[in-house]
Amino acid sequence: MAVPEIHVGTSGWTYDCFEGSLYAGDTPKRKYLEVYSSVFKTVELNASFYRSFPETTWKGWYRRTPPDFLWAVKGPRYFTHIKRLEVSRESIGRFWHDVAHLREKFGVALFQLPPNLKFDESVFMAFLEKQPLNRKIAIEARNASWHMPHVWSLFEKHGVAWVISHTAKKYPMSLRVTANFTYLRLHGTTELYKGLYGQEGLDYWLDTIIEWGVETFVYFDNTADGSAVSDALNMKSLVQAISTENQRQTG
Questions:
Q1: I need a surface site. Which of 16, 85, 186, 194 has the fewest CB within 10 A?
Q2: Which CATH number fits domain 6-250: 3.20.20.70, 3.20.20.410, 3.40.50.620, 1.10.3720.10?
Q3: How far is CA 4 from CA 99, 134, 146, 168, in A?
């Protein structure tokens, strides 16, 4: 079976609990990104959810990462939690203007919706209509009203990736692939942001990704206890091993 392109990383890179497993104790925080991007080829940028950044910061992120690095950029909470998707075209334009500084290293934009945001087709469609064409967009829906066939059909029609989000049963999860790529967020096994997936969990998710058969962005968000680094490193090794074996068999 062919192995799709699989991008593996963590949800952020600046956590103190990454010391020891990813960063040496004497690594200055200003060098964390360089160290992180020498190990992983993608990261989920969470800071953009909370605040905007000047052009120099975006260009710095571009400059400090390798040529084959990809950024998953989390959309502002102003869009999702404050305006609840009823955002002006100008605000959305400013977001994409900022993201453009990542140039070819931009991978996908993630919009995480609040748990109390119910599906409203007119609001959803208006939000999508304001997005640029030919950009990868993924939406994480935490309210059960979104987990419905007619909603998935709209995602499919507009090429938006349904985020498959494992939250230790905190929020609903639906295994749906709605675009030519998908986005998997692994938030923890024991509670939100905690708990190691381990060999059994990683094997399950890798098998599932291969069954999906599309380009997949995988981010470990079990960052509160440092499990994300271990899981991401092990998943990266599993992906490399199965890709190498697949090439050997087909070559």
A1: 16
A2: 3.20.20.410
A3: 26, 20, 27, 26
Q: Report d(CA 173, CA 60) in Å as an integer.
A: 36
Q: Output the CA–CA distances (angstroms, integers) from residue 176 to 103, 112, 132, 138, 190, in the order listed.
A: 29, 16, 23, 12, 23
| Cβ-proximal residues to 5 (8 Å cutoff; 6+ apart), any chain | 215, 216
Specify the pLDDT at position 248: 79
pLDDT of 210 above 80: yes
Edge to edge, what strands does the sheet with 181-186 contain? 6-10, 215-220, 181-186, 161-166, 137-140, 106-112, 70-74, 42-45
Beta bridge partners of 7: 217
Arithmetic mean of pLDDT, 108-121? 99
- Whole-model pTM: value is 0.96
